[in-house]
Amino acid sequence: MRERGYDAALVDELLLRLTAEKLLNDERYLANFIAYRAARGQGPLRVRAQLRGKGLIGEPVEQALEAFPDWIAALNQARRKKFGALPPANYQQRMREARFLGYRGFTSTQIRTALGSAVDLDE
């Protein structure tokens, strides 16, 4: 609002009032942002990058990402939506799914957990 020419003192007062009335809460915003993105099949790496793009970095972001209850469930949901309920039939299919999940922002550990330890993402 300051960038748009509003009085800085008025903006500061407004932010303090909104925070005091619990209408503005950074932790709640982070939790909702992460839950929404995870429900859309995005992993923690991608969500962290999106938050960084919005100027949100640091310990609160890391705590909110760690507090998300189940990244593996989000990964499995994204995998099932793209590839179906059956597990990958062969190594080539497993690697295709692993690449997709990596692009979606899931960590290699999460992908190995979901697809099996035979996936080598470091190649």
Core attributes:
single chain, 123 residues, mainly alpha, 2 domains, elongated
Mean pLDDT: 89
Total E-strand runs: 0
Structural class: mainly alpha
Strand content: under 5%
Query: What's the tally of helices?
Result: 7
Q: What helical percentage do the residues reach?
A: 55-70%
Radius of gyration: 19 Å
Report on this structure.
- With 123 residues, the protein is mostly helical.
- It has 2 domains: 60 residues, no CATH class; 45 residues, Orthogonal Bundle (Arc Repressor Mutant, subunit A), CATH 1.10.10.10.
- It has 7 helices and no strands.
- Helix 6 runs antiparallel to helix 7.
List the helices and strands and how they pair.
Layout: H1 8-20, H2 26-39, H3 44-53, H4 59-67, H5 71-83, H6 91-103, H7 108-115
Q: What is this entry, summarized?
A:
The protein is mostly helical. 65% of the residues lie in helices and 0% in strands.
